[in-house]
Each structure stands twice: as structure tokens, then as C-alpha cells.
Design goal:
By secondary structure, this protein is an all-alpha fold. The chain contains ten helices and two strands, in the order αααββααααααα.
């Protein structure tokens, strides 16, 4: 039950169906999702730990307002650390890993995906490549950054219509990896992350 509530909360945050910058009330959320307050409480604590929510007052939580400087920091860190992680993974990539990554891209091509499903598949594509590095500490940091960036995805995908460009970048990077054009693949990843960040930051600034 908590897992279902967590997924619904994430979907509503991404779609901007819940208010930003005001305390979230457990009783209201329990009515919204037709559950008891226990799974609501557990889900809010999980979202707080993942960076989707921030503390408010002594015990409350709220969805933070989308902030340009925060987005800029997150994308800069992603650009540096994900390129590093992929570079460490390069010697360990094989046909099975690249094939699994391609399967996730094909799943991302489906037009009827929800924002939550799209975000999960996007991470699974990147995760499949990064795990090959076998660097758990660095991977954990990158995973946390992805989780924090996730709450911007609804804002990015709907008003900025970035899905098509993102998929094109994914396929290009995978092709370069398959052809062992590693320097170009690393540059493709760096550009993929930085361009998405620049687009989002410009929109937030405006």
C-alpha cells in the first residue's frame, strides 16, 4: 500500500497537482488517496529522505518551490559525476548490458507512458550503464542526484517538451558505446545532461 501511495504522490508532484511551498497535511492526503494516515506518513518520510520534500516547521513537510540555483547545482553535479561514472564503467560494458539498456529505451518510446513511468525508465537506462562501474559509493551519490532532479521532470517534459530530444540523445550515446567510440559517448552524455539543465534553468529564470 505504501508503495502505491508513494507512486501517486510522486506523480502528483511531477504533474504539479499539489501546492508548492505550503505544508502538506496528512489528513488531506489520506482523503485524496483514500488510505489511512500511516502509508501517507511513511511516504512523506521517504520523499523527504529522497529530496522531493523539505521540512516545514517542527514536524511538517512541503514541496519546495522550483529554484533556478538548485536546478543549476544539480545539473552541474550530474554532468561531472555521471560522466566520471560512465567512464569507469566503460571497460566492463558488454553486449548483455548494452542490450538491456536498449530494451529500456524501446520501452521509453511508448507514447502512453505516465510521467512516473517515463522517469523510472529513464533512470533504469542510465542505471544499467553506470552499475557496470562497480563503484557503489559514487553510484549512490548519482542515484540521489537523479532522485532530486526527478521532481523537476514534470516541469521539464510538459512545458519544455524535451522528451524527443532526450530520447535522440539516448540512442546516439548507446550507438557510440556499441561502436566503442568512448570519448564521443562521454561527450554525448555530458552534452545530454548540460543541455537539459540549461533549458530548464532558462525557463525557471524567465
Amino acid at each position: 500500500m505504501s508503495k502505491d501511495v508513494l507512486a501517486k504522490l510522486k506523480a502528483d508532484i511531477r504533474s504539479q497537482n499539489l501546492p508548492l511551498g505550503v505544508p502538506l497535511k496528512q489528513v488531506d492526503l489520506a482523503k485524496r488517496y483514500e488510505v489511512s494516515r500511516i502509508p501517507i506518513r511513511d511516504s512523506l518520510q521517504q520523499l523527504l529522505a529522497e529530496g522531493w520534500l523539505v521540512p516545514h516547521g517542527k514536524c511538517g513537510v512541503m514541496i519546495p518551490v522550483l529554484v533556478r540555483h538548485e536546478a543549476e547545482d544539480l545539473y552541474r553535479m550530474r554532468s561531472a559525476l555521471e560522466v566520471m561514472l560512465l567512464e569507469l564503467a566503460l571497460p566492463h560494458l558488454n553486449h548483455a548490458i548494452l542490450g538491456k539498456a536498449k530494451d529500456y529505451l524501446k520501452a521509453l518510446d511508448h507514447k502512453d507512458l505516465t510521467l512516473l513511468e517515463r522517469g523510472e525508465l529513464n533512470w533504469l537506462f542510465h542505471k544499467t550503464l553506470y552499475e557496470a562501474a562497480n563503484r557503489p559509493t559514487l553510484f549512490k551519490v548519482v542515484e540521489q542526484l537523479h532522485s532530486q532532479v526527478d521532481r523537476y521532470i514534470g516541469f521539464q517534459c510538459i512545458p519544455l517538451d524535451y522528451d524527443g530530444k532526450s530520447q535522440s540523445d539516448h540512442y546516439e550515446m548507446l550507438k557510440l558505446l556499441e561502436n566503442q567510440e568512448y570519448e564521443s559517448a562521454l561527450e554525448c552524455l555530458r552534452s545530454h545532461i548540460e543541455k537539459a539543465g540549461e533549458l530548464l534553468i532558462t525557463c525557471l529564470r524567465d
